[in-house]
Amino acid sequence: MEDRVAGGDEATSRSDVGTKWRDLREFLALVERHGLLKNIDVPVDPDRELAAISILATAENEAAPAFLFRSFARNPLGAKVLTNMLGSCRRRYALAMGLDPDASLRDLVIQTRELMTARRTPQEIAPDAAPVNEVIQTGPDIDLTCFPVPTFWPGDGGPYIGTANAVITRGPDSQRINVGCYRQMLHGPNRIGMYITAGKHGRLDRDAWWQRGAPCEVVAAFGVDPVLFMVAGSGFGKDVSELDVAGGIMGRPVELTRGVSGSLPIPARAELVIEGILRPGETELEGPLGEFTGYYGNERGPQPVIEVTALHHRKSPILTAAIMARYPSSELGTGFAVMRSSRILDDLIKLGVPGVEGVYATPAALGGYAMVVVAIRQMYPGHSAQVLALTAQCPAAAFFTKWIVVVDHDVDPTDFNQVLWALSTRVSAPDDIECLKNTWSTPLDPPRFPASERPFGSKVLINACKNFRHYAAFPKSTRLDRATYEQVCRRWSELGLEGRPPDVRVFHGE
């Protein structure tokens, strides 16, 4: 089992080498063939109605389709808006990553870890070969208010063009290109906000330029493929470019091309891209925005604003909109949870922790940000406590995570019913619950007061493993025997049972 988790034979079971799509349009064609896309052709109001449709249609359906809104009352450029691109649909995530859409969550985590260790350097293509350059506008011709930019919630500060986006920056002393996903409110025809949480690489790049008294160049793509979106929303090391990670996942380099007003490259196959400048001290009132926590984020206040210097877009472009809501309606759903889980698993293995058999960042806990469950095969005294401590502060889990739970190998960390069983039968609260204080968190954390304290948080560490001191004497859990399980699986169709048999991996006596 350890070898499989660490990248053995099972981890290499991709359905093919590389993704079966090259850009957002090809991805949508693929998921439509799988019945996972819903086209909405009746006119919809981008002011709250569009978001309400998506939220209500996903509220009780983890497997809800992606929604492509194709008709608006005012839409001179024939733009479309995509919501729930990945959402909480496991199959759509697998198709985005080039994996088997019928794979279990546990296997998707393992396979995703392998994909995210690969790297492909981006490839530059000529501007006239880049689909994003079908239409280019500069100067007074730029008017972003022509697009159906959504306002999601009734308390939002305005329309947000940047939620499912990819924002490119580069620091003054580095050639590394950073790609982040940051919220961006539309302020006018050529002005877009850019709110970034402290500690994020895009903000570090911005501040480095400003400390020199220089403006910061920015490129932002607002119609992106699912892999670029996911890696933009996932933190990597300061020396790793998300473009290299995305290329490794897709099995082909990300295609970039030259811009027309700045030195940063632009994604050649994106739907809509802006080039712009962030000037020190230039702000607009921004926010609030209904966030992934299920609450409105920071109060309305001044935030840096981008002066848009060039606009590139495909004809009839598709804007990607990530609705931030409670699970399963949030775009921070299963896909992000699997990707975060795979990175935490990779961190633990690189730290040399033995016996790790599975990791899952539960998507219902704010897209996987708030809770992580790690399954281990206990091997020595203090093993479970070691895993709890290292998970809490490993690079992939340090930000925001509030609950870290460690369970034994007989508990599937992707099955929250099993996790609750372990919490209910293996935890002695006085002995098995610890709290870390003053940890790295987010200003969006609702219960932390005063608000100025919110960049600091806390983490609860729960040992839901059998007590290692009394492991042999611990009551035996009821398990099927392997031979009977395999017999029933063989007869599943004969018995007239629907679907596939449950994935059981631990049996009586094991």
Give structural attributes:
24% helix; 510 residues; globular; UbiD C-terminal domain-like; 13 helices; 21 strands; alpha+beta; Pnp Oxidase, Chain A
Topology diagram in text:
Layout (H helix, E strand, L loop, with lengths): L1 H4 L18 H10 L3 E4 L8 H10 L7 E4 L10 E4 L6 H8 L7 H12 L6 E2 L10 E4 L21 E3 L3 E4 L8 E3 L3 E5 L2 E3 L7 H11 L4 E6 L4 H7 L9 H9 L4 E4 L6 E3 L4 E15 L14 E13 L4 E3 L13 H17 L5 E6 L9 E6 L6 H11 L9 E6 L7 H10 L3 H4 E8 L15 E9 L17 H9 L20
Parallel strand pairs: 1-2, 3-16, 4-12, 18-19, 19-21
Antiparallel strand pairs: 2-3, 5-15, 6-9, 7-8, 7-11, 9-10, 10-15, 11-14, 12-13, 14-15, 17-18, 20-21
Helix pairs in contact: 5-9, 7-8
Commentary on this structure:
- Helix 5 (105-116) packs across helix 9 (334-350) and helix 7 (226-232) packs antiparallel against helix 8 (242-250).
- Residues 1-15 have low confidence and may be disordered.
- 24% of the residues lie in helices and 23% in strands.
- Helix 10 links the parallel strand 18 and strand 19 (403-408).
- By secondary structure, the chain is α+β, with helices and mostly antiparallel strands.
- It has three domains: 2-320, Electron Transport, Fmn-binding Protein, Chain A (Pnp Oxidase, Chain A, Roll); 342-470, UbiD C-terminal domain-like; 478-510, no CATH class.
- The strands form four sheets. Strands 5, 6, 7, 8, 9, 10, 11, 14 and 15 form a nine-stranded antiparallel beta sheet that branches. A five-stranded mixed beta sheet has the order 17-18-19-21-20, with helices on both faces.
